[in-house]
## 1
Amino acid sequence: MFCGESRYIWQAEYWPNWRYDLATLASPMAEVARLQGVLLGRLADVGFALRDQASLAALTEDVIKTSEIEGERLDAASVRSSIARRLGVDIGALAPADRHVDGIVDMILDATTNCHAPLTRERLFGWHAALFPTGYSGLSRITVGAWRDDAKGPMQVVSGPIGRQRVHFEAPPADRLDVEMDRFLHWVNTPTDEHPPLLKAALAHLWFVTLHPFDDGNGRIARAIGAMLLARADGSPQRFYSLSAQIQRERQDYYDILERTQKGTLDVTDWLAWFLRTLHRALERAHESLDAVLYKARFWQRHASIPMNARQIKVLNRLLDGFDGKMTTRKWAVIAKCSPDTALRDINDLLARGVLQKCNAGGRSTAYTIDL
Ligand SMILES: Nc1ncnc2c1ncn2[C@@H]1O[C@H](COP(=O)(O)OP(=O)(O)OP(=O)(O)O)[C@@H](O)[C@H]1O
């Protein structure tokens, strides 16, 4: 019990009348809008096929990283194919479907490709059911397709070993959820000029995660709602950057700022500034990943007339996707699933054709890179 004092933001007197200092946020907001504009402009020039590849790359990162926050590691190949299948993008051989991966992909694609459709409780229940198709989270049975009921006590965000857990946040009691969620959904669906669209995305994320209406999956759904409002904000249902991936990279910061905000006042300027900074970095990364997609496309165009076998194409694609470390004959053989002799023959052929070059990185074994 909180003895009447307001410990969490949802207990504040004027909840949920968000306040912030627009003057402080104006310039980071303009900078994010500029980066978004430049990114969409670059994409407008690259043609359908590459645009689809760029979007596939961003969505794959989004799905993988949003699940990593929860501690699940999804298989990148299943995620890529699950998205590619739904977007109708050709990525060559498709990996087999994984029901679990399909659920989270369904949610993120529904949130973004149908970003203009109203957000309703039925839609949220559908997303939740897609995340937990068995009705279990790990070994615990959870309520799916309905708000949580607090049968096992209040909803808390805790960390640490059992017995010495630290409570970071406590969400509003379950009996308030019907009213609270109706108010939230009405706000999401009402187009007003009350908040700039980017700030509305940040507020929706915070508001939802503060209500924490489900037994589990609240973080992932909050990020999907954020992505939905960002898609509305930039007027493009196709995604070319991933805020979830950036949040995953900076997740300790994300937890800290959330905790401070949820224990603070209704003035959430700091949370909004953090959200804009993170979005800014997500956009910078998207520019880099677009550079990589374009570079790869140009590389294959330039070498279109050189005959190559499947092994060579496979390893070159690995190098083009940003291979960590040095590519040696031994690693080549492992990736191409061939003997070191065959690997060396493939490598020598590409050296002779000017596709590869030796790099003098030192060390005992020779390493190879793409000849720029
Ligand atoms: N220290 C904290 N203070 C306040 N909120 C927190 C804190 N740590 C995490 N959270 C919020 O709680 C969410 C986790 O809730 P829940 O476990 O229901 O969601 P999830 O989708 O299963 O998890 P995750 O976000 O880890 O993938 C986090 O994403 C974050 O939004």
## 2
Amino acid sequence: MTISNNSTIELRGVSKSYQRGKSKVPIFDELTMTIEDGDFVAIMGPSGSGKSTILNLIGGIDTIDAGAISVGGTVLGNMNESALTRWRSNHVGFVFQFYNLMPMLSAAENVELPLLLTSLSRSERKKRVETILEIVGLTERARHLPSELSGGQQQRVGIARAVAADPQILLCDEPTGDLDRKSANEILELLQLLNTKLNKTIIMVTHDESSTAYAKRTLFLDKGRFIQQEMNQCA
Ligand SMILES: Nc1ncnc2c1ncn2[C@@H]1O[C@H](COP(=O)(O)OP(=O)(O)OP(=O)(O)O)[C@@H](O)[C@H]1O
């Protein structure tokens, strides 16, 4: 494993296919790309083009058939399952379309969850949760259950949970896909804030073209390749 201070994401000649019945369905064939620290990349493409798969590969929850993926020089394929789990909890936060919050836990308890895997003491965890809930504007809702929050508020909890352990990389799969325009824009502004103020690297899959204005660049994926790239004027 190479020790490195940055978290540049590199895909080199990545191939991936899934078995469907007796046939192999190729998703990516020798895909190569680099995402630097502090980038905010939107990924668009038709349904089934592999957008979620890219996030899963970079987050180390799915494996490649050929090539290599490295983050800050660490080659994901060289780690065993437990090393990968540890690496993931330190380096990557996931944000989901339907929030994936624990329904029986309060907003604060949901945000604290990933911190239980760290060496932080109970009081350090409490402090961290308070700070992050303040950043996402939910201090007043800390004790509320997800069912007592709006969709936009639930997604704020999801984002707070994703950044709780201070990972460099945020992988967001349709983070505004279940929200109305106003709530969606507020969530996109929050992601932009995390990118510009805290320098988080953000990779966001979206079907919504107007969301891409918040990213620094947009990659269009089709038939296993990035067919186009646009540099965005940030919103
Ligand atoms: N675990 C799996 N086993 C078999 N096939 C899979 C698996 N995961 C994804 N696929 C297939 O791989 C292709 C890419 O899936 P992926 O979810 O990455 O697409 P997507 O671009 O995110 O689609 P959508 O926009 O509909 O969410 C699809 O054809 C999908 O059916």
